[in-house]
């Protein structure tokens, strides 16, 4: 697919003053919006206020939609899902707010059901599908960053119990049964689970799982997390992406960290560039990782 430059657009017609410290202005700034007595309010009066309060959010929303249009085909299944989610929201609106869904969405500023689905529900579904696509397109970096692995974990604060558990497993005993006998935390029950960098499993254990080249393997050592004084026994089921892909999608497709990484990936793909200084500064404050035109800013945020 041919790369195109995604440029910040905050109105139907903008003029950029210069290439360095540029500021976008509307060409119809003299158009009158309202009058109060002898006071006239124009588009030019409103525009700077609106840009300051919501320019960055609106810009990113528009950019996301352009990426969805370029990368995601909206299927019948996605529209069916949107309808189901609409019905779910309608039930909540009637239950919690004692109003019809039509009343609810109009209070939110949407004209009707179709507009609410198109502007609220469907974009969330498109983002989830984009995240799934990111797993495949940026597979190597994703695996390096998140280290996903399906594993069985036993944890205990007693080193002797950990050693006895390891001996029992080497003797062929069932992992869940051994966990019930020797583990002393309800967080890890010995069942197969997907673990990754944001799942709470210590990095020292994740690293051991990532180092294994074959699945269905007991890591034949007691793994010590010195920061908490906890001892772990780990059995790797698989860290092969193709094998555990469905579990990755189920667990991470709606993950907020993944969503941020996905947007960064596609903003880079399409050479996203912000020209307006006000919008640039607002994004720098709230979403610095999205300023891919300035790696010094974006990467500094990701490292902090």
TrEMBL record:
InterPro entries: PrsA_foldase. Its EC number is 5.2.1.8. The keyword Transmembrane does not apply. Keywords: Coiled coil, Isomerase, Rotamase, Signal. The keyword Signal applies. It catalyses: [protein]-peptidylproline (omega=180) = [protein]-peptidylproline (omega=0). Residues 1-24 form the signal peptide. Residues 65-92 form a coiled coil. PANTHER family: FOLDASE PROTEIN PRSA, PEPTIDYLPROLYL ISOMERASE. This is peptidylprolyl isomerase. It comes from Amedibacillus dolichus. The lineage of its organism: Bacteria, Bacillati, Bacillota, Erysipelotrichia, Erysipelotrichales.
